[in-house]
Structures are given as C-alpha cells and as structure tokens.
Write a structure and sequence with these properties.
Elements: H1 2-12, H2 19-34, E1 47-48, E2 57-60, E3 63-67, E4 78-82, E5 86-89, H3 95-102, H4 121-135, E6 139-141, H5 144-152, E7 203-211, E8 230-238, E9 256-260, E10 268-270, E11 272-275
Parallel strand pairs: 7-10
Antiparallel strand pairs: 1-2, 2-5, 3-4, 5-11, 6-11, 7-8, 8-9
C-alpha cells in the first residue's frame, strides 16, 4: 500500500522510479517511522509514570501567585509568574523508588511507601541524574518558587487548606507525642493540584541556594543559583517535617530553611520535578 501511494505521488510530481528503487526508499523510511516523536502535551492535572518503578507525576498548570509570608526570611512578598506547565512528584520520593534507582535504602524508618529520608541535597541530585539517564527524561528538583506555587495550589492561606492545622491534616506529631516516625506517602488529603504531603512528613530539598531574604529573587519560576548575598553551600528545604511537632507554624506554605547541601538528616527527603515539552 505504501509503494502504491508513493508511486502515485512521484508520478504526479513528474519523476519516475523503478520498483526496486521504490522498495529501497520504503525500507529507508522505516527507521523514521520508528523514531520517537516529540512528547505529546500533557494537560494540567494529568497523572503519569515514565516507567514501572518511576515516581508518579502530576502536571501543574502555568500561573502566578504571591510568594512569601510573615517572617523576615519570607520577605519581601513578591509576585511570581510561572509561564509554563511542569510535572511534579505526586508524592515525596519513596524508599522503594529510591532503592529501584540507587540499589540501597538509607532511611532509618523503613517502609516501601514511606518517603526516603536521611538524604542530602547532593544525594537527591545523584538520584535524579541516574533516573534521568535510565528513562531519557529530564528530571530535576523543583525551584523554590515552583515548590511554593505547587504547595499553595491557588491558596493564599497559611496552609493549603486554610489557616489552622491539626494532626488530622498532616504528619507532624505522633499519637504518643513522639516524632520518631513518618507515614506512607498519600496519607492525608491532596491539595487542589492533586499533590500529597507538601506539609510535614519530611522536609523537601529544592534546587536553590540559600538566601536570607527574597531581595532580587527570580520572579519567573527559575531557581536562584547566584551567590548574590546567598550561600550555595547551603540549599533550601521546604515543607516542614514530622520534627516540626513543637512549632506547627513551621509547616506553613511560606516557611523556608537552609541546610548544608552535603549533610544528611532523618527529617530530610525530596520530591522530583520534570520539565515538559513546551
């Protein structure tokens, strides 16, 4: 059928080829038909996985928001416009997902569906590099502004659901008052973007270098990598963790912290992002 169509087209154009030549052209065209095409656009809210053991991703829509809060390091509050959609881990990276890529599990509180913990920013970057290599997709950490935009999910309140918090909303305290546990990802309700556990459980590494305030911070969703009055030996943590039990205000959407990029702690994990075709 392809040969007949091609014959008709070349005859109309005024050129003629022998049947062996047409057969050769058809064979040469086969690899082109098998090549990977550009990734089909994914609609906001779409959920997907790039491989069986890959983290589940959800597409975040383009948009704008006011970034920042009431504490000195959350100021000045400023407008950020994210003019592109991107994908983010529906959950924090789990211990099973980490082990599938890295071949080990550094977490102290074991559980295949619990978030991987006790990982540094450098560890998270290594995981992402290996996952990207294995899948051929461009995974990365979120920028700090992408993280807050994703976590707020259109909200302007202290937390994604409102201004009050209790232990029914997020993992930041255990029933016995201890902080010696995490919970499986997907516990508690998702935010309006369909993302889980942005509040508590484990702190989440993002790409940005630590800056004490937001003066001259990017307003386009990009990561702040300049050492302009900043410190790139420390990277930003967002989201609070189970260890924020004494100060639930540390779980607010605007709260931020800086931590040594090579240091590990049982309260730190991460969530991945993926660039989508524009």
């Amino acid at each position: 059928m392809m040969t007949k169509v091609l014959s008709a087209n070349v005859m109309k154009s005024g050129f003629s080829y022998s049947l062996p030549t047409l057969g050769l052209l058809s064979i040469l065209m086969l690899p082109l038909a098998g090549c990977d095409e550009a990734e089909a656009p994914k609609e906001p809210g779409a959920v997907f996985k790039d491989c069986e053991t890959c983290p589940e991703m959800v597409v975040i829509p383009a948009g704008s928001f006011k970034m920042g809060g009431k504490l000195p390091d959350e100021k000045p509050v400023h407008d950020v416009k994210i003019a592109y959609s991107f994908a983010v881990g529906k959950y924090e990276v789990t211990q099973a997902e980490w082990e599938a890529v890295m071949g080990n599990n550094p977490s102290k509180r074991k559980g295949v569906r619990r978030p991987v913990e006790d990982v540094s920013w450098a560890d998270a970057k290594l995981f992402i590099a290996k996952l990207s290599e294995q899948t051929g997709k461009e995974y990365r950490l979120l920028s700090e502004s992408e993280w807050e935009y994703m976590a707020r999910a259109g909200s302007t309140t202290e937390y994604p659901w409102g201004d009050e918090i209790d232990s029914s909303k997020a993992k930041y305290v255990s029933e016995d008052g201890s902080v010696e546990s995490t919970v499986s990802v997907g516990s508690y309700s998702a935010n309006a973007f369909g993302v889980y556990n942005t509040v508590g459980n484990v702190h989440e590494w993002v790409e940005d270098c630590w800056h004490e305030i937001y003066k001259d911070a990017p307003i386009d969703g990009s990561a702040w990598l300049s050492e302009n009055e900043g410190n790139c030996k420390e990277r930003v943590l967002r989201g609070g963790s189970r260890s924020s039990y004494a100060y639930p205000g540390q779980l607010r959407s605007a709260v931020r912290d800086g931590f040594n990029a090579t240091a590990r702690d049982t309260s730190t994990g991460f969530r991945i992002a993926r660039t989508l075709s524009q």
